[in-house]
Design brief:
Structural class: alpha/beta
Largest sheet: 4 strands, mixed
Strand order of the largest sheet: 3-4-5-6
Number of domains: 2
Helix content: 55-70%
Radius of gyration: 28 Å
Amino acid sequence: MDLRTKFPHLRQDFAASLVVFLVALPLCVGVAVASGVPAELGLVTGIVGGIVTGLMRGSSLQVSGPAAGLTVLVFEAVQEYGLPVLGVIVLATGLLQILMGTLKLGRYFRAISVSVVEGMLAGIGLVLIAGQLYSVVDAEAPASGLGKIAGLPGALADAVQNTGALASLGLGVGTIAVLVLWKRMPKQLRTVPGPLAAVGLATLAALVFSMPVATVEVQGLLGSIQPPSMDAFGELASVGVLGTIVAFTLIASAESLFSAAAVDRLHDGPRTAYDKELVAQGAGNALCGVLGALPMTAVIVRSAANVQAGAKTKASRVMHGVWLLLFAALLPNVLAYIPIPALAGILVHAGAKLIPVRQIVALWREHRGEALILVVTAVSIVAISMFEGVLIGLALAVAKTAWEASHIKLEVIDKGAGPVQAYLSGNATFLRLPKILDDLESLPQDRPVELDLSGLHHLDHACRTALENWAERHSAVGTDPVRVTAA
């Protein structure tokens, strides 16, 4: 059978797969190095994301791999628990995602407040930028988010006085400059993806000028794969590890499914099946955990590159995984020439993209409550930690929704004679109880009052009890008691 008949889009998918491979390669390596794990493990996750997750149903054009959005959390987990336990955490994350997808919970991730998700990404972006700027100047980054930001001026000042650090800074800044300016380059030049061009030029500069900068350490693909031992599974009894698993699951799932929604807007092909996509992400993460590799999410940069390169089917993302596998197997020593400040520059640029400056400005003009949730979530992640910051954001979003849902209106009709008529409508909850009682207590006590509750959609126990108590004590002596029409 003719290949063109069986695979009508093979040419487009083949071309797109090469573009995605060239975009993914430096990002896979950069995320691994920034996460404090061997560079090859980033490639392993990219390979699994391409071949395993890529073959499964869910989103046809979305590409998965190690994501900058999880770098901070992975680094903290590796520093706290060690690389073997990371495999256990990623495996458990994958199994939870499979369970959630099987129970058809994927669609509910769309109910998570967009402000919380954008605040989460903004917080990650800020910590990522601050941490990677230390790698740009070949310095050791403080542990806390606030410490990273506070120590930057001193680190930059020290770099200016050190030849090696100054060379490292030059490469990092040059990498960022190439990434920023790449869109303005001639069209023929832009056939090479920006990240690959930036890393390639930095590597060439480091070799030609013999710059004294740190480069990627290479262990070999098989040497870097270390499945978690049975002792590592014992850490599942730790509350900290369980909390990290929950954080990985929520963040990886939300980022993947929000990315799927964004990718769906970029093409006219089949829409994402959210529950199946969650299962596919879970299967990929479970395998990454078994291999001791990084966690994966769907990555919007690679996915957008896939769509824009003309991909038509999931074959493009599967082939990109094959190209990553061939590179890791045949050319791993090439990684040893890549300067770490160049990879740090790529992640600084990626972190900047995670901060939704335009969205914050637009939200502040139209929905200040949502803008506040976004900012508080981001600041909490920087000041405290990823998990607690996300929980604070979710709590604020729930509180805001509850407050808005408890909207209530009191309408008073006083004709000057006869009873005063009061109509309550909306949702009477304990959140608005002080306002309700203040308004009712302002009604005249020496006139009959008729309180109509039939317009209420919801009346909770606290409000019902408070209204009954108010009705009993409101009327003055000699005045007819308050008459209440039940909801």
